[in-house]
Amino acid sequence: MKQGQNQISFEDILESLAEGVIAVDTEMQVSVYNQSAEKITEISRSLILGKPLEACFRRNPRIAEMLRKTLTDGRLFTEYDEKLFRRITGDTIPIGVTTSQVVDARGELVGAAALIRDLSGLKSLEAGSLRKERLAYIGTFAASLAHEIRNPLSGIRGAAQLLSRKVKEPNLSEYMEVIIKEADRLNVILNDMLDFARPAKLNRAPANIHQVLDSVVFLLQEGAGPNTFVKSYDPSIPDVFADENQLKQVFLNLVKNAKEAISESGSIHITTRAITEFHLVEGSGPGRMVSIVVSDNGCGIRPEDLERVFTPFFTTKPKGSGLGMAITLKIVKEHGGLLKIDSEPGKGTSVAVYLPVFERGA
Questions:
Q1: Which domains, from first to last, does the chain contain?
Q2: CB within 8 Å of 233: residues ≥ 6 apart
Q3: Most buried residue, 1, 153, 162, 184, by CB count within 10 Å?
Q4: Nearest-angstrom CA–CA distance, 360 and 346
C-alpha cells in the first residue's frame, strides 16, 4: 500500500456492514454492537455495550438463547429464521440469524457472535410473488371450472322449467322454483368467476365520473331512504380515461356493499375531488388523478377480515360469491388506478378509488 493512502480498519468494515453484528464475551456481556444492529433492533449501543445481553434482550430472548448455546454448547445457527421485536416502533420483523464462536490467536474461546439480517423486504417480495402465482392459478382454475359447470347447469335449469309446466301439485311446483332460482344464483357466481379470470378488454374513452356515480345511485335507490345517499361532488373534476361500463361495475359493488352494511337510518357519502399532484408509487412523477370516496356509517369490517377482503372467494355474506371486491380491485388496477380501504367495526367503512384523468393529446 502506498504511503499516505488511507488504510481500511476492522472497525470501518464492521460499521459498513448491512447486517447487524452482535458479539458477547464468555460472560454473555455485549462487546460488539455495530450501527446496523442499532438500526435493525432500534436499540442504541450506548444502552447495551458492556451489559448482559439477556437483560437487554428481554423482548427477544431467542437471540440471547442462540448465542448462549453457541458459546456453551458449540451449537451453530445458520440463517435461522426468527422474529425480532423492535424497541421504538413496537413492530415485529423477520430476521435471519447466523452464529459462530469467537476464538483468539491461541485458539481459546473468548466469546460468540451473531450476524443478523433484516428479511422484511425479502419476505414481502416472496409473499407478493407467491400471491401472484396463487391468483394466476385461481384465475385459470376458475375459468375452467366455470366452463365445465355451465353446460350441466343449463340442462338442470331447463329440465326444472319443463317440469314446472307439467307438474300441477303446488308443493312440487314450489320445489321446481327453488331449483330454477338456485341455478340462476349459481350462474351469477359463474359469471363472476369468468369476469375475474378472463383478461380485460377495456374500451377506454373520456368518461364523466359523476354521471357514472349518478347511474349507480339510481339503480340502488330502491329500498333506500330519502337521506341515504349524500353526494359531495367537485364540479371542477375533468373526465377520467376509462371504460364506463367497467367503472359502473366497480361502483355498483362498492355502493351495494355500503348499502348492505348500514341500518335503515344509516347514510352513504359519495365524495369526489381532483388531485393535481398524485404519486401513485414511490419515486414516480406526479400525475393528475380523480379521487372517489364511498363511505358509510354501517357495521364496519373486522381487522382480520379486512386483510382478506380482496382475496378471491373470501366473503362474510351468506350468499356472496367472494369475488366482488377481487373484481373491483382488478378493474381499478387495469385502469392504472389505486384502491384503498379503511374500516372500523361499529363505525363504518371508507373506500377510496383513484383514477387517472383524461389527458387531451396524450
A1: 10-118 (3.30.450.20), 123-197 (1.10.287), 205-356 (3.30.565.10)
A2: 210, 213, 270, 271, 272
A3: 153
A4: 44
